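anyone else get weird line breaks when pasting these?? whatever heres mine. first is seq + tokens for prot A
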Amino acid sequence: MAHPLRQLTISVGSPPGLNGREGRLDLADFYGRVLGMQVVSEGWLQIAKERGNPFTLALDGDGWSDERPPRWPDPEYPQQMHFDIAVPDLAAAGLLVEDAGAKLLRDVDHYRVYADPAGHPFCLFEDGEGTTTEPRIAVVTFDCFSPRSLAAFYEGFLGVEGNPRLVDGADRVVISLGDDRFPDFGFQHAQFVACRWPDDAYPAQLHVDYRFVDGGDEAVERAERLGAIRLPKLADTEIFADPAGHPFCI
């Protein structure tokens, strides 16, 4: 039985101040410009392609990355998760992100690693199939010790275990969520200091909020049955850690 997503929101932790103003505003400007997104909610600051889009980015400023921003590739200051952004032209996209405030960390033949203005790493890669007309988040990649194990957790949790894996290797797995409105999920082997939410000394740099068509109760049961660990509740939001320690909300 499939359990399709109704909404997927990725929260990008932001420091209290960048360039003399709220960090979340700078990150909203940055990702809005890079990904062609607009502000769709100003209270809990969210951006999306358009209002009503089920995939949004939230620049929450909740302190999750204030104390220890990433210093990729230092495992003591880990990225934990990152965006793989498909672009039609790598050179042109590189100029765009650098002009918007990104810092180049590594340049490889077919991809480049950058840090956003708050230090979160992300990758640009050129879409070899020619189907990408503007930058888009193609894959959300999770660091973990065992990619196949964590992929199996998310396949069951998201109800996509029947979908063929796009990549299935010992060091990297990519699964499709079966809906072009959402990015694929990737899992790559890494050893790093895991998040210990809500400990500010070991913050979550990014986290995902899920809403399902079948509702929260069934999603909570499914998450726990598959191995998620319940974390302290925040208001009416159920918070869990996946088997690799990544927090997520239902």
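and prot B, same format (seq, then tokens)
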Amino acid sequence: MKSPERKRHSPLRPLAVALITALLASAAVVGLFGTPNATAQPAPAGSAAPAPAPTATPPAGSGNAPATAQPATPGGPVAPATDATGSVSPGTGSAAAGSAEAGSAAPATGAATAPAAGATPAAGAPPAAAPAMPWYEQLANRPIDESGNFWFPKAVNTATDASDMMFIAVLGLSAFFFFGISAIVIYFVIKYRHRPGHKAQPSPAHSDVMEITWTVIPTIITVFLFYYGWRSYIHIVTPPQKAVEINVRAWQWSWAFTHSNGYSDSDLHVPVDTPVRLVMTSSDVLHSFYVPVLRTKQDIIPRRYTYVWFQATKPGTYSLHCAEYCGTDHSQMGRKYDDKTKSWGRRAVIVVHEKGGYERYLAETGSTNDPPEVLGRKVYEKKGCVSCHSIDGSVRVGPSFAKSFGKPVPLQSGGTVPMDENYIRESVMVPGAKARPGFSPGAMPSFQGQLKEKEVEGIIAFIKSLQ
């Protein structure tokens, strides 16, 4: 007697279950971890910096200057306002530097507001605080805005929407096929496992439908990814005709961002909602300009120029990295050394100014009337000298500047020369001309053509002041 023929199940049901499982799983992955942070979306409430509150004029003879309200700055902490007596009033914004972004004529210093002309200081009031750093330096020293989602930080560039959506698409496709194929494999392993009394079924040798399916579908997906990837690539390598151009020079281990007014800064300052084109080169080894919030990365090559452009859409202070290993202090590229605390502070950042802020930055930095010693200290900090030369006597990559002027300098070739104005100028312009023993002659880049005569004189005055 023949045994009853087993009922053959259609493979469509398990395939449908696997498809639904894969769709749900990929949607969960994308929804939970990969929601894009589109630049086109309006900023959340409270993120935009309001105009600074007007400052009331004190009556004649008043002992206290009015409290200066601090406007909110994107990504910055809430800071209180201070009056002339040092008392703290509730503030509604971030660091005082933000008020400069509103286009006011007077720079915000963050220090106590001076009494009005003719006013008599209150009895027992402390002496006026020393002038604080410029408002644009205060902006650079704000806490870095690192908000975002699981996969990437917030989007601050017009080109980030396309790249973020491409990332989400690839993530979703990867999750879909991973979970779908895994579900089918698990089903087949259970369904067709070896069991007593069951004979192995013959496998199909050929299927035109299956081969066409697994050829056409991947081809469509590949063409889709190539098209959108190529379109995004063409966009990011083709800067607009009218873009703000900034020259960038990288070296071990700092940055020099030179603007149209000739001012060079170790932090990158750019305007909001304006195309910016960077023309970049290196003085020594390979570096790489990388700003996560801009989704912008470009290698910087010695003796060649490379280019990158972006259009920042949200004012704030953001991290800036070197993404190419460039030596011992690669991870600390552009860091600042605090001689008071004897410790390394923050690294270089990118500051996206609000409307009018970048123009004011150019106006104020292009017409500096600092004394030579003050200008020299700025050059020392901004040109990266701080990374290699200390002012407290400690030895770093290069010799210390402390108490060195007028002293004999031993040379690698033998003999000594005096540390005078001529030696400093030659060491800045041609670092290897009079190399010192114990220090690599090629460690310091030449600043020939990068410093104005006034800046060289400032460096000399600054070293003289360290006696």
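btw re prot B: Residues 210 and 216 are 10 Å apart (CA to CA). Confidence is low (pLDDT under 50) at residues 1-6, 38-100, 102-130.
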